[in-house]
Amino acid sequence: MKLVLQGPQASLGLLHTIAALAAPHSVHVLSAHALRCANVTCDSATRAAVQQAAQAACVDATFIDSAATLRDYSLLAMDMDSTLITIECIDEIADMQGLKPQVAAITEAAMRGEIGFADSLRQRVALLKGLDAAALHRVYDERLQLSPGADALLAAVKAANIKTLLVSGGFTFFTDHLRARLGLDYSNANSLEIIDGKLTGQVAGAIVDAEAKRDTVKLVCEQLGIAPSQAIVMGDGANDLQMMAIAGLSVAFRAKPVVQRQAAVALNFSGLDGVLHILR
Questions:
Q1: Any idea where the domains of the chain sit in the sequence?
Q2: How far apart are CA 265 and CA 155, in angstroms?
Q3: pLDDT tens digits, residue range 128-170?
Q4: Measuring CA to CA, which residue among 215, 231, 193, 181 is closest to residue 72?
Q5: Mean pLDDT in each 10-residue stretch from start to end of the chain (280 residues)?
Q6: In this structure, are residues 156 and 67 in contact, taking their beta carbons and an 8 Å threshold?
Q7: Distance between CA atoms of residues 73 and 224, nearest Å
Q8: What's residue 279's pLDDT?
Q9: CB-side exposure of 138: number of CA atoms within 13 Å?
Q10: Given 43, 60, 72, 81, which residue is catalytic?
């Protein structure tokens, strides 16, 4: 096993101190804020000690097979809201109606797995009834930002000839714009019903929930002629767990606790490109 330690604010001295807890055979400096430790001790007590020290230092600690590299994968599948981008689009749309607190509370409960995703989406979209569709453009233009490290991650996977999929419980208005802007290969999301330039408060067509996300990953893998084990899947909410479960590498990005507990990798402090250090 290898241990990768990385933290945007962490010094190499601090990282070496944490690394020593795992008694590595050798330590390689990856950047000014990242180390790779080879042939580490990885029993449960050691893992717990490393994770505790790393958390206290705002450092991401990842134990992973020494042989794992980016070359092992042929697809990168990403959630959109709070993963590829920093916002929850529906919360920001609701803010145009003065309803962000109500909608955000439902979003949070759904991402924690406390409410079924499909029901939560219908509840939230219903609150948007009558909103001018121009609000979608305002959210995209004024509030949507890529998560830290997104550009670097996408550049690296494209250079490695890895295909990209954006699969979201959000809306096609945003996934379509991002797919075109970022040169992504595939996308799937929900469609907001719009009539006469106004949101009707309904979702058009089937809802992209946890099962649909998983099935989308499976379908794209079939189209590419690869196994799901050749996919990296990144997400942050409970509705990402099913697609993460079939992946070769599951990455929880600044995720809810229920997701962090089940993912192979948890990035709480690093950017999306933290995956690249792990798979070097």
A1: 1-67, 75-221
A2: 21
A3: 999 999 999 999 999 999 999 999 999 999 999 999 999 999 9
A4: 231
A5: 96 97 96 96 96 97 95 98 96 92 92 89 93 95 97 98 97 98 98 96 95 98 98 96 98 96 97 96
A6: no
A7: 12
A8: 96
A9: 13
A10: 81
Catalytic, 81? Answer yes
CB atoms within 10 A of CB 114: 12
Give the integer Cα–Cα distance in Å for 79 and 213. 9
Report the alpha-carbon angle 17-20-24, nearest 5. 140
Residue type, 172: T
Q: Quick check: 78 and 167 in contact, CB under 8 A? A: yes
132 is catalytic: no
75-221: which CATH architecture?
3-Layer(aba) Sandwich (3.40)
Q: Do domains 1-67 and 75-221 have the same CATH topology?
A: no
Instruction: Name the active-site residue from 43, 65, 72, 79.
Output: 79
CATH no., domain 1-67? 3.30.70
